Amino acid sequence: LSWFGRIKKSLHGDFGSICLLLFLYLLQGIPLGLIAAIPLVLSSKSASYSQQAVFSFAYWPFSIKLLWAPIVDSVYWKRIGRRKSWMVPCQYLLGIFMLLLSYKVSEIMGDEDSDSNPPNVFVLMLMFLPLNFLAATQDIAVDGWALTMLSRKNVGYASTCNAVGQTAGFFLGNVGYLTLDSPDFANRFFRAEPKPYGLVGLAGFIFFWGWVFLITTTAVLVFKKEIDYSVSNKFVSSLYEKDDKSEELELGIIETYTVLWRILRLKPMIWMVLVLLTGKLAFAATDGITGLKLIGMGMPKDKLSGMAVFLTPLQILLPWAIGRYTSGPRPLDVFLLAYPYRIFMSGVFAAMVWWTPSFKLSSGDFSVLLYIFWIAAYCFHQVASYSMFVSMMAFNAQVSDPAVGGTYMTLLNTLNNLGGNWPVTLILSITDHFTFKNCVDQQTKVILGSCSTKVLEDECTAGGKVCDVVVDGYYIAVILCSVIGIIWYKLLFIKIKYFQKISRNDWSVVKR
């Protein structure tokens, strides 16, 4: 047998299910990648950081899906299936929504060559927010279905399907779209005569995937049957009566919310919530603005997003390499080592942003050497970022109460995701206020006044003058976040060490 045949045989009848899961997770990644690409497009259209902050709310549903996850797990139509009752409607709505959006998105995004018709960012956020909400709900349903779709022997492949499928979908929705939309890519490889637009625009890309969602969802509804493994069970009158060897409880809606409240009331959990929700504020400017800043300097969107191709092998290998240091009783030691290093990388990124314009060529693009420097910098940044992520997830897995393990881990993951989103939204919303510009006469070099607001900037440029940046808010934001990070580290270092010293029973909602 070939290697493919051996793998297929080893899956013992689960090969088709694994292929289906990979495709479902790939579909889920498409809107996520597309939403992540929109800020780069907005930046190329000179959208302000405040406008980017408005659009960043479209990211939030994945970070707060725990709020409605118990409903998705408990309410369903038995005739269709527990998971298909949610997955099928969500994917149909995603398809319909994308088809409708494809007819209006060009108008909402504005004409690229005209400042008189700028992007309507608020409407854009309102259009993409439901897409992310539906994708998050589909994720809850598919995660649950994966556990029953696969045999007990192969259920471990569920997380692999999630990681591989969602990564592939994100890549297609992000790098794939930006590449197809790039005039430079189209002119270089597919056209004899250059044109000012790419092979496929945003409207066409969304339209295509809208039909893919509708067609494939219909196929799943008709041809893939769901086996019902649900059992009716009563919530234990007191969780505290469960013994050590009990398996994870199957909880209903009310019971799940009750357990979540009990977890949040645990003494060490109160401090953990603070750590998870505030720890990433130190990196908000670097993570949320650096890419936008590079686009604003003229770096092509497809080339910036294309750097992810070189980071993918590192992202696959890092968790394995870091895992040997986080598998012991003190995984957060890695977190504490990586935190100041990641703050240092924020300074490196700021220096490289300042350095970037000196690599600009007469053609408008940048030197290949600059892209090599940025790929190297992102690689070092990934080491710090993944070290923090893997170590925190390892600790969360260690302290999660086995009796309510799924609920416990989902809560911690939700807090971790939310802790990465709200700081970026906050920093984007205030960075414009740190930026100061002067209106300058090009001929006399005389400063005619401030042009820090959009209205004043338009008045300045309309009169043939130049609006020069005196103080760039990006650098102020990086400094502010770094200072906050250093203070945070000093204040909570001992508390994070303390997390590893206390008994694991202190983290349990089911006392033994």
TrEMBL record:
One Pfam entry for this protein is Acatn
**Presence of the UniProt keyword Chaperone in the record:** no
**Ranges annotated as spanning the membrane:** 20-42, 54-72, 84-101, 121-142, 197-223, 269-292, 304-322, 334-356, 368-389, 474-494
Please state where this protein is localized. Membrane
Main localization, broad class: membrane
**What Gene3D superfamilies would the database entry show?**
MFS general substrate transporter like domains (1.20.1250.20)
Q: Keywords for this entry?
A: Membrane, Transmembrane, Transmembrane helix
Q: Which GO terms describe its biological process?
A: acetyl-CoA transmembrane transport
Q: Which GO terms describe its cellular component?
A: membrane
Q: Name one GO molecular function term.
A: acetyl-CoA transmembrane transporter activity
Q: How does it sit in the membrane?
A: Multi-pass membrane protein
Q: Does the keyword Membrane belong to this entry?
A: yes
Q: From which residue to which does the signal peptide run?
A: none
What is the protein name stated in its UniProt record?
Answer: Acetyl-coenzyme A transporter 1
Organism source for this protein? Thelazia callipaeda (Oriental eyeworm)
